[in-house]
Amino acid sequence: DLSPLSAHEVEIDGVVYKTAEHAYQALRVTPEARAAVMNAKSAMDAWREGQKCKEKGEIIAGYDKEALMEKIFRAKLAQHKDVKEVLLATKDRELKKVYDTDYYWGTGADDSGENRMGKLWMKLRDELKNS
Q: Fewer CB within 10 Å: C terminus or N terminus of the chain?
């Protein structure tokens, strides 16, 4: 499954995260704040912990969210054959993260969002098809 919430563990730099969402939220917060994210029971709970960290100013200043998500998705693809198969099965279709309130990673409620997640998956798919 291409969602960062899917139940696929991801290993990044020798650390195993329960989901891509756990990895993303943990790696964007200060080291002192990571335990709460890492111990979150679900991907949505990891997201909630990440939001709490954001409110408390515990996000790493100047982190590159695109580069971080790409690193995580590359690891997920390399570590899970089923994710690679799902991605390749999309052929040349446009991939969209349809989420009403997310205008950065998703399409937003009115399809005017940047859809950065969909574009990232399409970039990775193109690389796979051309390798």
A: C
